[in-house]
DNA sequence: GATGAATGAGCGTTCATTCAT
DNA sequence: GATGAATGAACGCTCATTCAT
């Protein structure tokens, strides 16, 4: 019971923090404004979090814990490495595309310092990379992906491409559908930009939908 | 003469700022420490820059102005879209790979706020994207790149991949050679990750050198 | 209770401010010294006042609010315009004569800028002038004051005379009794400096041109 | 020759200072702005004045030196104490009424601190008071002024009345003619505010106690 | 004499955090 | 547990003054 009430208060603080961090940026954000928005006293924040920074870190950890599990699940449900990569990309863009404020916090505020980024990298990003790595390995075994691919590099490349799509989407201010971009990104990653040589008789390519906006 | 002395002082301030921003982060950086490192009085900073933030913005603008010109030059010197893309990637990684502190400032500190990022995006990144866009267009005309490529998306993808390589390199703390990664990144972008289908008789791929390090 | 503590703290800050402003002048006064003298932390000042200037303005407003009421009361208690004018003068000199530090703040520090003075003039001084104006009007009706007096000018003159007495007293450094001067000042104002001529058959007074505007 | 050029520069600095002090107030005034307005370099100011404060003090001293002499002259030219008092009042109001900026500096900026005021009081104001004192003494001898007048108090009263007229005029923002007020002020001082009683057989005046102190 | 670039001391104010209630 | 009044360390920036040219 007390547990429930506490959890509720903690959640309200985190939700308020997302809004405030997104709007003002981490440094300009005032703990007292988070408290006001969460409907608690300033001091109460410190019953649930060690410090202002701990709010940001907790935010990140809890959102990640939730989504990394879901991502693994979706990957497992897809069959074939290409489909699994598409699932990863879709999940990545869907999670951030559904909540612009959260996306701002993840794309901008979490990258305030090498300290934060190292932490981010050491925990969640390694999981992300190894998930992609496993998918690639499987693709290589099943023959759908080139066997000479440097796996870590591909993982970083995929993350980098998607990350840029998200950042671009945030800054564009436009409201086009972010997850829609998963398909063309993965398509580019899989097929590459190079024109097929004539000798290879290829069917005409399905045109990729023109992309809205941006950055 | 006076010109020289001023320029020298301004440059020393900017150089000191790179070091201090890289080490402490923009917010934690103290103007007085930049002054100390530059060998000038605190007040002197304000003869050359309007504010602390103006130091960061000027840093960015001046470094960009210098390198964007060089990049165009190198692109012009390369022949064929694939080689031009490689030139872009190499330039990107070389500039940041040569000066880790500058790279930290560009990868981390400049992304402190949506304000900064919007500025960055509106100026330099658009140039970057349109440069890549032109190269792709040329590649499509000359038949080396797929004609159905969404140009803006490819530009963003390339930037995102390289950006992630730089960030990864910074955070890894290791000292492998960043520009070396230009080739495999562009190779992946051009050829894609997908295995060639058997029907297409392809020569064995040159193995990409295993990538060092990290993140 | 909390009310008491707050009021007490606020009062202590104002009292400390009077001392510090009087001794150092408003500009040279340090907020941290006011805090130290009031026995609170620097930041506490800003729980009660918006800014350093707000301390000065509040000081003025609160002292005025208190004394203007008392002055009206004393005026009401006196009978006849001459006695009422004497009451005003006595009150004026008594209030400032009782607290030299407060007098310094009122005579010197509050006149730092046209901004402050305009504020002062617009609020309290208008009240002062209209109080005197009413008394003069009454005196004219009851026949104790000349009917051709320009009321506003007399009000300004009385204020100016008393104001100079206070300033003079402050700067003299001596400790004679300020309120004692109310009688001779009012006597001079009432009777004038001119010697009575024994047989003076006086021509009717030329009316003084009505005075434009003012303050 | 050099003398001439210097004097010109010095004068230009003082003229610029009047404008800047009047507009911004002494503390907010920037030495560099005075320099700019005077058409000289910042450093040049310090060839003519010891400090920012010295500009203000010099301003005051030089304007006073000029006008006090003129005032004495005008007093000498008038015959009879009442006319002499009128001459003083007219001079006072004319000098300040002719140059609103100078008036602002004298009424407001010069009263920034007890330091300044003590200086002002010790020099020029004593001259003012003794000039008035002599006139009163003469009036008493010639029988035009009451023989029981406390001379110093009358001098202060006259100054206070005129001072308030000037301040009032500055703050009113209106542009009525200041010197015009000399006559009614002196008339009030001479005749007093009391209505003449027709058949008043007056008892001899109770002497006012001699006033202590200074200024 | 004149310049103006350089100096560096100095301070109002904010706000994360604490702790008595 | 919850409160919110109180704390006090911390710092970007200004500007009167100097002095090398």
Rg for CA atoms of chain A: 20 Å
- H/I helix tally of chain A: 9
CATH topology (fold) name of the largest domain in chain A: Tetracycline Repressor, domain 2
Helix content range of chain A = 55-70%
State the oligomer.
Answer: homotetramer
Number of E strands of chain A: 0
Number of domains of chain A: 2
The pLDDT mean of chain A sits at 88
Q: Encode the helix/strand succession of chain A as letters.
A: HHHHHHHHH
Category from helices, strands and their pairing of chain A: mainly alpha
Which CATH architecture of the largest domain in chain A?
Answer: Orthogonal Bundle
According to CATH, what is the class of the largest domain in chain A?
Mainly Alpha
Poorly predicted tracts of residues of chain A: 209-214
Amino-to-carboxy terminus distance of chain A: 47 Å
Largest sheet descriptor of chain A? none
* CATH homology-level superfamily of the largest domain in chain A: Tetracycline Repressor, domain 2
Using a beta-carbon cutoff below 8 angstroms, give the protein chain pair with the largest interface and the number of residues from each chain: A-B, 66 and 66 residues
Given the C-alpha coordinates, what overall shape of chain A results?
elongated
| Strand fraction of chain A | under 5%
């Amino acid at each position: 019971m007390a547990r429930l009430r506490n959890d509720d208060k903690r959640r309200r603080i985190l939700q308020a923090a997302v809004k405030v961090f997104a709007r003002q940026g981490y440094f300009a954000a005032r703990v007292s404004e988070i408290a006001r928005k969460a409907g608690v006293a300033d001091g109460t924040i410190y019953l649930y979090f060690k410090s202002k920074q701990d709010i940001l870190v907790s935010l990140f950890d809890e959102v990640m814990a939730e989504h990394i599990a879901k991502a693994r699940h979706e990957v497992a449900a897809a069959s074939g490495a290409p489909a699994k990569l598409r699932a990863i990309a879709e999940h990545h863009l869907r999670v951030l595309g559904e909540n612009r404020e959260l996306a701002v916090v993840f794309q901008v505020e979490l990258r305030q310092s090498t300290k934060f980024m190292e932490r981010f990298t050491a925990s969640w990003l390694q999981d992300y990379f190894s998930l992609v790595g496993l998918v690639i390995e499987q693709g290589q075994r099943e023959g759908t992906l080139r066997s000479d691919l440097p796996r870590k590099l591909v993982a970083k490349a995929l993350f980098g491409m998607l990350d840029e799509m998200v950042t671009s989407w945030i800054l564009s201010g436009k409201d086009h559908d972010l997850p829609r971009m998963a398909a063309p990104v993965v398509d580019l990653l899989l097929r590459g930009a190079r024109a097929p040589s004539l000798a290879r008789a290829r069917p005409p390519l399905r045109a990729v939908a023109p992309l809205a906006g941006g950055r």
